[in-house]
Specification:
Blueprint lengths: L1 H15 L8 E5 L2 E6 L1 H7 L5 E3 L4 E3 L7 H16 L10 E5 L5 E6 L9 E10 L5 E6 L10 E3 L1 E4 L6 H13 L13 E10 L2 E13 L13 E7 L1 H9 L5 H16 L2
Parallel strand pairs: 1-4, 7-12
Antiparallel strand pairs: 1-2, 3-4, 5-6, 7-10, 8-9, 8-13, 11-12
Length: 267
């Protein structure tokens, strides 16, 4: 199964690492390269004060430095994109604007990151039972992306200014009803890969980070935030078959295939 998991991961990776959309433009935030904007986003922002659109770049806050003034501009940028129907929903949730090395420059509404091709960080937990089954979760039908698909037990984006490990603890509580003592045996997070995927609303650039742990026998995950419709356990072979059949989101499929390749080779 190790070879199958590795081969499947390689196929999934081809889907997850794509060049930026044609005609997209590099985004500079306070003079720092941070993303790739769609032409629709550039058009929506063309006349916004503090924004410069050229034939080659989209510059946001060229004369500003990281701080309150830049974040206020980024809030106006997100609102302008919303008014131009460039966004997929609105989350009222701030994410860090990160440079290419993952250093924060500012903060912006979550819904605006894809049209601007901004880097995000997703934290996942691969949780196992003591007898070697993998916990998985099915996304609620009300989710705006990938409704009804299977996912890792826990997965979500780190918020603005949020430590990655604390983001994982928060997501564990919201999505699986797991509190800090339940996951205290988790391993340090590691990066699986940086996704770069074309989407209808823009460009997804996302670092997939994962931790793993074995949950104590008395711990039973249960969703708290309404975003999960079912939680189950599966044997590794069944999980791999589900990945191959396309039953998981692409992000979860990558994380789980990577996990199965690593965990099986370690046995």
């Amino acid at each position: 199964m190790t070879d199958q998991a590795r081969a499947l991961y390689a196929l999934l990776r081809e889907r997850a690492v794509e060049p930026a959309p044609e005609l997209s433009r590099p985004v500079l935030v306070a003079g720092v390269p941070c993303g790739r904007a769609t032409l629709a986003a550039c058009d929506a922002l063309r006349h916004l004060p503090g924004v410069t659109v050229s034939a080659n770049t989209l510059e946001l806050g060229q004369t500003l430095v990281p701080g309150v003034a830049l974040d206020m501009l980024l809030a106006r940028v997100a609102q302008a994109l919303r008014e131009a129907n460039c966004l997929r929903g609105w989350r009222d949730e701030l994410l860090d604007v990160l440079d290419e090395a993952g250093r924060p420059v500012g903060a912006i509404e979550r819904a605006a990151v894809r049209p601007l091709g901004l880097l995000t960080r997703a934290v996942h937990l691969n949780a196992w039972t003591t007898d070697g089954r993998l916990w998985i979760a099915r996304r609620a039908l009300s989710k705006s992306t990938d409704p009804g698909m299977w996912d890792t037990l826990v997965g979500g984006l780190a918020g603005s200014g949020e430590d990655l490990d604390l983001a994982l603890v928060r997501e564990c509580g919201e999505e699986a009803g797991l509190d800090a003592p339940d996951i205290q045996a988790r391993e340090p997070m590691r990066t699986v890969l940086r996704m770069q995927r074309r989407l209808p609303e823009g460009y997804q650039v996302e670092d997939l980070l994962v931790s793993r742990c074995v949950l104590p026998p008395h711990v039973r995950p249960a969703n708290r935030d309404g975003e999960v419709m079912e939680i189950a356990t599966v044997e590794p072979a069944r999980a791999l078959a589900m990945v191959a059949a396309g039953e998981f989101t692409l992000e979860a499929a990558l994380v789980i295939a990577d996990e199965l390749a690593a965990s099986q080779s370690a046995r």
